[in-house]
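Input/output pair, single chain:
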Amino acid sequence: MGLCFAGPVSYGICQTGCNALAVACYAGAGLTFGTVTGGVGIPAAAAACNSALGFCMASCVVAGCIPSL
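Output:
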């Protein structure tokens, strides 16, 4: 079996997983993902979920760059 580069597929799967976790994070805080706008009045839980989502999505870059078997 040779090497193949599944970068875009791996990246897309990773991004989907991140979004699923963000939806779960919001739901756990009693919020609906996609309905909270940023600003001074943002709930702390939403800010934490957004921060985690950003970290997760940034980590997906690695999944998109690693060759797989």
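The chain is about 65% helix and 0% strand. The CA atoms of residues 55 and 64 lie 15 Å apart.
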